[in-house]
Design brief:
Length: 659
């Protein structure tokens, strides 16, 4: 028994001497030994600076000063890990059992660079990376030591990972995909059957982004399998949650929920500062759906439900992450309210939009903020029960919006407006200053609704169809309206003009309560420099027709137009054609008979009467002289010839001696 005690004593003494020697060994010697062991096990260079301090029980630990850990041979020359200080601790008793239970990994100011290329990750370390350095044989075909059967290893777990003020870099196939600085990160994986939990914080404009992540099966995830993932992210202005599946490449599929209380602030936090989301399109948002993300930066949303301010949508969307993002979506909604979409735009000195006052007789002078045209590219298809925009409301509509580099094309297939249908497209282009244009066909339009809304004209009513091509340029409503050019046509069925009575003006004396009822109205027109001109208006009424010609000032909001009745059928011919002139501002034009035309017509008629009277008297006098009845000027010549013949005959008979 004594010999057994002596043997144990000798073993303890030897172990104590070894441990004591290690503890008394200078830090640079310890660092060199550790670097050699890491090199032998991983094939990577480990560089330790400053003192290296070790602990052995119950935690086998190490604390160093500045440290770097080399990258994979196929990766970039930058180290995979560097830090100003590093502390690592491993459970010594678990290590004796063949398991690696990491108690702590604490790093200050670390830079962690993760690279993926052709399916290989620089975090993967195996015997294949060390075979070259460990083989002493010059025979290239000689197998590496222990290559016949890899040694079985125990479990690896992590109690505490803590990175302070870290920089995280992720590179895929040589292209940086992510580079975050100032990150504080904590992670824990206490057991192979327990979920890996991680939390991270990163400063961003307006505050910080906080991320909480949980992977229930880290072993499967690290092997490349698709595994469950639960993620929560909070940022200035909003939060994002995800519950689904993920793989090692970062591809995801699951239920996603995005809530924002200030979308502008959240966009700024993710690098989209200066963006102002229009009211009604998600200054406050709640979006949920089934989300799929692929490693090429594509997001698809299915079964999507989006509540954007006071509006809600259902549908599907595909998004390509870029600058700006590319969006393809099909949406449906009930009653869409965009009446405040321009609220809060740049300050202005007058006009509507942005809170200014509208000038009494002019369009808004407020600068139009067209910057939202650059927020995204793509195509959005929308079906809505109604769409309310400033000053007008669309009924049931099927719209398609195409966005391409600050140019928007809105196609109507069709849109319901003013109780009628619009088909065609409207374009807004803000690439080199703002311009707007369109090519539209309208059917069944309530003319009074349209003219009242668009130009404060309330006197004309009826159901209209027509075409319109237009183009305008400018940064305000006033500039655009004064620059308008284009052409079009209008065709109105039975309608009413309020404010004057053409029947009474035509002399019928019956009137119709201060209105004119017409059976049809047609016209074509041209637009140049904000002025609409027309020369072929034709209005059909029961008793006469009226032509029209003149100018409508779209920019100046005024009118100078003349209706002229023709082919009049009035009281047995007692009526007279009286042209009517409409002149003045849209809000209060004067409507009066054009007396100058009446005077001209009356004077011409009187002159004709005087001329006829003089002619009749002359013919009567000639008839008396010629002793015959003459009714027109052609008979004068015949009568004169006859008189001369008679006189010549009498003279000849007298010369011959006859009576």
């Amino acid at each position: 028994m004594k010999w057994l005690i002596r043997i144990l004593f000798i073993l303890v003494a030897v172990a104590g001497l070894v441990i004591g020697a290690l503890l008394l060994m200078p830090g640079d010697k310890l660092g060199k030994i550790l670097a050699e062991q890491v090199k032998a096990q991983t094939g990577r260079e480990l560089t330790l600076s400053g003192d290296v301090r070790l602990s052995f029980w119950p935690v086998l630990g190490m604390e160093t000063g500045p440290v770097t850990f080399g990258n994979a041979p196929w990766a970039s020359s930058e180290p995979m890990l560097s830090a100003q200080s590093l502390a690592v601790g491993v459970d010594a008793s678990a290590l004796l059992a063949g398991d690696v239970r990491i108690r702590r990994v604490v790093a200050e100011d670390p830079v962690l660079r993760l690279e993926l290329s052709q399916g290989r990750g620089n975090w993967e370390m195996s015997a294949s990376q060390t075979g070259a350095s460990n083989t002493g044989s010059g025979n290239a075909d000689a197998p590496a030591p222990n290559s016949a059967a890899p040694a079985e290893t125990g479990t690896v777990t992590l109690d505490q990972l803590e990175l302070s003020n870290a920089r995280l870099v992720y590179v895929e196939n040589g292209v940086p995909q992510m580079d975050f600085s100032g990150v504080d990160l904590k992670a824990s994986w206490p057991d192979v059957t327990a979920p890996m939990k991680m939390s991270a914080s990163m400063p961003v404009p307006g505050g910080a982004v906080e991320v909480d992540l949980e992977i229930p099966d880290l072993t499967a995830f690290s092997s490349g399998a698709v595994t469950p993932l639960v993620l929560g992210l909070t940022a200035p202005g909003g939060e994002i949650s995800f519950d689904g599946r993920v793989n090692l490449a970062g591809e995801m599929d699951g239920k996603t929920h995005v809530r924002t209380t200030n979308t502008d602030a959240m966009l700024a936090a993710f690098g989209q500062g200066g963006v102002s989301v229009p009211m009604g399109l998600g200054r406050v948002a709640d979006v949920s759906g089934q989300m799929t993300y692929t490693k090429d930066g594509r997001i698809s949303l299915r079964d999507m439900r989006a509540v954007l301010d006071q509006n809600s949508f259902d549908g599907a969307a595909d998004i390509v992450i870029a600058s700006p993002p590319k969006i393809t979506a099909r949406l449906s909604t009930g009653d869409l309210d965009l009446t405040q979409a321009t609220a809060g735009s740049a300050p202005n000195s007058g006009g509507t939009g942005g809170g200014g006052k509208q000038a009494p007789e002019g369009w808004s002078q407020a600068p139009i903020d067209a910057s939202p045209l650059s927020l995204a590219n793509g195509t959005i298809r929308l079906k809505a029960n109604s769409i309310a925009i400033p000053d007008m409301t669309f009924g049931p509509s099927d719209l398609s919006l195409n966005l391409d580099r600050s140019r928007a094309v809105l196609k109507m297939e069709p849109a319901t407006l003013f109780s009628g249908k619009l088909t065609g497209e409207v374009v807004a282009n803000n690439r080199n200053g703002l311009s707007v244009g369109g090519n539209l066909t309208a059917t069944g339009i309530d003319l009074k609704q349209a003219l009242t809304t668009l130009g404060d004209v309330e006197r004309l009513s009826g159901t209209a169809s027509g075409t319109l091509q237009f183009l305008g340029v400018g940064q305000t409503e006033a500039q655009i309206m004064r620059s308008l050019s284009g052409k079009g046509s209008v065709d109105v069925g039975k309608g009413v003009i309020a404010g004057f009575d053409l029947d009474r003006l035509m002399g019928r004396g019956e009137g119709s309560g201060g209105t004119t009822v017409f059976n049809s109205l047609t016209a074509t027109y041209k637009i140049q420099d904000g002025n609409l001109t027309n020369n072929d208006l034709l209005m059909q009424l029961d008793n006469f027709r009226a032509d029209g010609a003149g100018r409508v000032g779209l920019g100046a909001r005024d009118i100078d137009y003349v209706f002229t009745p023709v082919a009049l059928r009035a009281n047995g011919g007692n009526g007279i054609a009286v042209p009517v002139r409409i002149k003045g501002p849209w809000s209060d034009p004067s409507i009066k008979p054009d007396l100058s035309k009446v005077i001209e017509a009356a004077t011409e008629e009187k002159l004709k009467e005087l001329e006829q009277d003089a002619k009749d008297k002359a013919l009567k006098k000639v008839g008396e002289e010629l002793n015959t009845t003459i009714s027109d000027s052609e008979q004068v010549e015949d009568a004169l010839k006859q008189k001369l013949e008679d006189e010549a005959k009498k003279g000849l008979l007298k010369l011959l001696g006859r009576d």
